[in-house]
Amino acid sequence: MATQKMLTFVSTPRETPEKRPAIERSEDFHEIYREFADAKAAEQASRCSQCGVPYCQSHCPLHNNIPDWLRLTAEGRLEEAYRVSQATNTFPEICGRICPQDRLCEGNCVIEQSGHGTVTIGSIEKYITDTAWEMGWVRPAAPVMERSETVGIIGAGPGGLAAADMLRRQGFQVTIYDRYDRAGGLLTYGIPGFKLEKDVVLRRNKWLADSGVEFVLNCNVGEDVSFDAIRGRHDAVLIATGVYKTRDLNLDNADAGGVVRAIDYLTASNKVDFGDEVPDYDDGELNARGKRVIVIGGGDTAMDCVRTAIRQGAQSVKCLYRRDRANMPGSQREVQNAEEEGVEFVWMSAPGSFVGHVTGVAMQAQEADVDGLPQIAPQIANVRVQKMRLGAPDVTGRQAPELIEGADYDEPADLVIKALGFEPEDLPKLWGVDGLEVTRWGTIKANFQTHQTSLPGVFAVGDIVRGASLVVWAIRDGREAAESIAGYLTGEARVAAE
Ligand SMILES: Cc1cc2nc3c(=O)[nH]c(=O)nc-3n(C[C@H](O)[C@H](O)[C@H](O)COP(=O)(O)OP(=O)(O)OC[C@H]3O[C@@H](n4cnc5c(N)ncnc54)[C@H](O)[C@@H]3O)c2cc1C
Ligand code: SF4
After folding, report:
1. pLDDT tens digits, residue range 177-189?
2. Where is this region: Disordered (predicted)?
3. Rounded-to-integer distance, Cα 69 and Cα 79, Å
4. Cα separation of 340 and 343, whole Å?
């Protein structure tokens, strides 16, 4: 690989890896960005200005040593770059693909602020670790000494997996319980393949199994085994169950046929991508083929739904969001990708009600009018769309959407996907656990640094503590919690270094 001098940002323009043409990528679930060629990665890494106070590093939740691995990449010392990169991040190739870099590392790059365009940190991070996998540099953990203490982790998402990795490296015996049939949490069943191909996640799951982590899948804690039983089996327990309760809409015909939850829709699509049999997809309920699709919401989940619907062959895909483009929570990069693929965004709009039509089956049921028979909901026909304008800022400082009276109209729809965000399930109640304290939002109360909950020996990380957040934060939590669990088990006070 060619060796490059640093600080070339003045003469070398910013380049991202090539994006597959929209017409081609809309036909499949493969990732849309191609890999950097070796010379291009070195060239782009050499744009880094190696500043004394790297804001990219301080704005990365993992405090990745970005300037060092950029320099090593520019110098063609890729194995060393990989060693530095993996020292602070359990899944660098995953973060490189799906972190919202524009809000984190790249958004704080100094050369971006001087108008030269940020270093493409995420793409280079992905390139380094993809190369490491190809070259065989990524090896399972080989603890110097096995320890007898065991840790039970509930939830195999990025938070639980990151903790498992750090604990195994120190020789602890780790068992992860997950209710799904595959590990990875939202990396596996939430985020679609066009952002994160499933092989990338599966090889990490295998790497952890090869490191000696035991996976107990298809095991729903609270149903198949009690939380108390897990506590009884292990010396410490980590709760990393994420948040899955969908925020709902209180509208007329909210339960009409064809109105579905984003998580069900995306999980079904990911399962189909794995080649699994999915009856709700095969019978059309969770399949957008040939339909007029409306997705409600403006976050990353909504972006994943609209782009999945395009790939399933929807007739049209519209996204309703009650604020404008500048005020949406989802990544601008994803909006642009979605628009290129044919999604229409209807800004400043919200559903007022769902208008259903009574299908033949529902009609028969109603006509029969037999006592005790369940009422069959109508099928979605239209979404009555309300138009909004942005009013005065609310307590959070964001401009609150206000209704424009009399501007409603009907938008025909065959499939409506609700992507309004997620809330925590009531775990203490679901699991019948006394003394597990939650916050007023229902998330588990845990110390910010140690991740210790109100129960001795029980720790918690990721979305179930933070509320719906990001993969990189779950990884950070998991790594930190592993340190304090190790301290708890060995009697040494340990808090992960900032
Ligand atoms: C559609 C979608 C797209 C997203 N896109 C991005 C993105 O592009 N970039 C980004 O950074 N973040 C993204 N996120 C957010 C990110 O996926 C989460 O913040 C992250 O996965 C949280 O990790 P976690 O380990 O806390 O939980 P999860 O990933 O949710 O994993 C929790 C695991 O716990 C298991 N579990 C739950 N309850 C039980 C139980 N009772 N018994 C056994 N197992 C249980 C679940 O099956 C799951 O496997 C996205 C989220 C969604 C929904
Ligand atoms: S982990 Fe995310 S925020 Fe940190 S350097 Fe990588 S892409 Fe940027």
Report:
1. 999 999 999 999 9
2. 1-20
3. 10
4. 7
* Protein residue closest via CA to atom 10 of ligand 1: 470
| Rg of the chain, C-alpha, whole Å | 24
- Closest to 420 measured CA to CA, from 282, 256, 254: 254
Q: Rounded to the nearest whole angstrom, what is the distance from the C-alpha of residue 464 to the centroid of ligand 1? A: 9
Expressed in angstroms and rounded, the spacing between residue 202 Cα and the centre of ligand 1 is 15
- Name the percent of the chain in helix, strand, coil, to the closest 5: 35, 15, 45
pLDDT tens figures, 183-224: 999 999 999 999 999 999 999 999 999 999 999 999 999 999
CB of 186 within 6 A of ligand 1: the answer is yes
The alpha carbon of residue 307 and the mean position of all alpha carbons in its chain are separated, in whole angstroms, by 15
**Is 296 within 8 Å of 320 (Cβ atoms)?**
yes
Which band of pLDDT confidence, cut at 50, 70 and 90, is reported for residue 497? Answer: very low
pLDDT per residue as tens digits for the range 382-433: 999 999 999 888 877 788 899 999 999 999 999 999 999 999 999 999 999 9
Nearest CA to ligand 1 atom 2: 301
Minimal-distance CA residue to ligand 2 atom 3: 60
Closest CA to 78 of 9, 127, 18, 12: 127
To the nearest 10°, the Cα dihedral for 122, 94, 299, 269? 140
CATH number of 150-243+424-490: 3.50.50.60
pLDDT digits (tens, 9 = 90+) for 281-340: 999 999 999 999 999 999 999 999 999 999 999 999 999 999 999 888 888 889 999 999
Q: Does domain 251-371+378-417 have CATH number 3.50.50.60?
A: yes
Which residues make beta-bridge pairs with 460? 239
**Distance of alpha carbon 51 from the chain centroid:** 31
pTM for this prediction? 0.94
CATH architecture of 2-135: Orthogonal Bundle (1.10)
